[in-house]
Amino acid sequence: MAEAHQAVAFQFTVTPDGIDLQLSREVLKHIYLSGVTSWKKRAIRFKNGVLTGVYPASPSSWLIVVIAIMSTMYARIDPSMGMIDRIKTSLPVSEFMTVQTQTVLSAILFATGLWLSFIFLLRYILKALLSYHGWIFESHGKMSFSTKVWLVLVKLLSGRRPLLYSFQASLPHLPVPSIDDTINRYLESVRPLLDDEQYKQMESVANDFKKDPAPKLQKHLKLKSWWATNYVSDWWEEYIYLRGRDPIMVNSNFYTMDLLYVIPTHRQASRAANVVHAMLQYRRKLERGELTPLRALGIVPMCSFQYERMFNTTRIPGIETDFVQHLKDRKHLVVYHRGRFFKVWLYYGGRHLLPSELELQFQRILDDKSEPQPGEIKLPSLTAGNRVPWARARLKYFNEGVNRASLEAIETAAFFLTLDDETHGYDPENIRSLDLYAKSLLHGKCYDRWFDKSFTLIVYKNGKIGVNTEHSWADSPIIGHMWEYVLATDCFHLGYTAEGHCKGDINKSLAPPTRLQWDIPKACQVIIEGSYMIAKGIADDVDFHGCLFNEFGKSLIKKCRTSPDAFIQLALQLAHYRDKGEFCLTYESSMTRMFREGRTETVRSCTCESTAFVRTMEDESTTTEQRLALFKKAADKHQNMYRLAMTGAGIDRHLFCLYIVSKVMDIDSPFLKQSQRHLVLIAQSHRHPEVSQICGSRRRLWVADDGYGVSYIIVGEDLITFHISSKFSSPETDSFRFGQNIRQAMLDIRALFNPKEKKM
């Protein structure tokens, strides 16, 4: 009862003598502190907004310009060439504005205009400099004189201590490639997959498209590129993600793992508390724009647009298309545990809850013995199934009463937290542990993650953690940046007591978490069960294998004077050829964040050069020197394609946008029809967290029915982790077998640089 009384700011009693008003000093104190915090937050945002708005200049530079102009006026020098006098004559004359005041005000207005013009000039020059990408194509360790000069100029114009969004206005727009370049690169990419007759047919269709209607479509696309900030990103988000009516679980959402070998505490509530507190610290920095922008070479800025919707964001289902709802200043999160939903406030007295206070709240949820309400356990499976039934159920059953209030609490939460009742993590003595851990993060039980939230934090019974992320609002490097901050803060800054609890005193006066209430009718429960069965069918078909490759890593590959990415991509080509005896479409994701609002582009990794290298590796009559020469040629080709994709000269985003324009204009194109199958596969491959997507011949949502999805992460200098997925229902694939093929391919390529090394 004490907690209930503290939640009331005032009470009143009607007596014969009037109304007896009783105020709660404690609650009023919290209200006051919350107001102070809110105003402080607004002031900091305003200050940082000004700093970002005038970047690369600074507010103090305005004062310098004003003083300089005023000084020249006192020296009877007019740097404005008469403009100050013109401004002066346009100002109204009154008893409150003397001639001297008019002169000073005119000078200040002129100085301000001059200062703003200087800022726009600096931004234009910086944008022009950032449009230069010659540095990317230069050999590692070799930098031309022009690039050195360019780097110096970029560094000079980049200012000091930039905030997260300081460079946004200076980033160049994504360029539209020429039709000739895109078609030539497309034909080159499909050449190793087609026989001579098929290639001639494709070449003929492509040439017809080049004559008509390509020029017409290209004009409309260029018009969009002049008008929009990015000619790809909005269509990519809408047509590839939000208009998809299939389940987003597995097909779209991706996961992020905990540190493999470290568990700072085995207490579930403690780990959840530290991690949530670290996320709140990151969110505060993010909202204030105080994070340092990512910069290539420590100088070239990357676009920060995707960070904006990390928190307080939910994908809302619709009949024809979903939309992304992003809010500000959300002060609660929703926790799911054993089929029940709890609302937890994140603030107390105008500040974030401390880790020890969060631990208390989460422990209260873990200790709660109440039973789920009818239909509550599997309610989240609505977000795991097909989108249309979920959209209709939301409109019909969650549009009023307690259901609407509870759903609104979930959709407006900062993020979603699952206190999982299972134990997961990597165990070196259990070969399947990593596989089960990844599958749990990817889909769980199909009803214990809210797949529509921007991300769901998952905390297991043994203290291991992970994240499941909805893909439409951002790509994996964005959530990865937050995750690195959270793990570092959790382990090295917040820490734990010797008993594994969060540090700090326990505030038992906190009001306990609130159970969300539901009134779910039988008809809705039938829809929930239907969504669950669809999701379970998808989850059960995921054949996943995690492969830790620790024989060598980035350090040794670089000593071979080869890009680690190219090395791994060629190993994947060799492994797949050994697995199936043929080549197939392969897509690697590349980022385009050097451009404003850039997201991703596709690198087509199966090339004529890579296929020649693979065939040579399987030909026992060839020498090591011949194989090594073809490997270097294939690696250089891959590196060049990756660089082209990063600099806006890729193939697939351009073809995708041309296809969208053709549909809008109701233009039928045989070339775009034939390439559309490839476009669909490429688009779906970027729905998955995979860095590389190896696709078979048949269309599939997340991978081809007979294909593999491979995500690899280079960890430190001597470890590479491969996350391999396929379908159990395919008789042609086996993720474990493919993992062994990858391992052997890596070793065989390594042996080219050291002929004495033999196969294992």
Automatic annotation (TrEMBL):
Annotated coiled-coil segments of the chain: none
GO MF annotation, one: carnitine O-palmitoyltransferase activity
Cellular localisation: Mitochondrion outer membrane
TM stretches of this protein: 50-75, 104-126
Keyword presence, Lipid metabolism: yes
Keyword Repressor in record: no
Membrane topology: Multi-pass membrane protein
Catalytic activity, reaction form: (R)-carnitine + hexadecanoyl-CoA = O-hexadecanoyl-(R)-carnitine + CoA
Swiss-Prot/TrEMBL keywords: Acyltransferase, Fatty acid metabolism, Lipid metabolism, Membrane, Mitochondrion, Mitochondrion outer membrane, Transferase, Transmembrane, Transmembrane helix, Transport
GO cellular component: mitochondrial outer membrane
Major subcellular location class: mitochondrion
Domain Choline/carnitine acyltransferase: 174-744
Active site annotation, chain numbering: H471
GO BP terms, alphabetized: carnitine metabolic process; fatty acid beta-oxidation; long-chain fatty acid transport
Family annotation (InterPro entries): Carn_acyl_trans (IPR000542), CAT-like_dom_sf (IPR023213), Cho/carn_acyl_trans (IPR039551), Cho/carn_acyl_trans_2 (IPR042231), CPT_N (IPR032476)
Domain Carnitine O-palmitoyltransferase N-terminal per the UniProt entry, residue ranges: 1-47
Alphabetical list of Gene3D superfamilies matching this protein: 6.10.250.1760, Chloramphenicol acetyltransferase-like domain, Choline/Carnitine o-acyltransferase, domain 2
Functional description taken from the UniProt entry: Catalyzes the transfer of the acyl group of long-chain fatty acid-CoA conjugates onto carnitine, an essential step for the mitochondrial uptake of long-chain fatty acids and their subsequent beta-oxidation in the mitochondrion.
PANTHER family associated with the record: CARNITINE O-ACYLTRANSFERASE, CARNITINE O-PALMITOYLTRANSFERASE 1, MUSCLE ISOFORM
Name of this chain's protein: Carnitine O-palmitoyltransferase 1, muscle isoform
UniProt source species: Cyprinus carpio
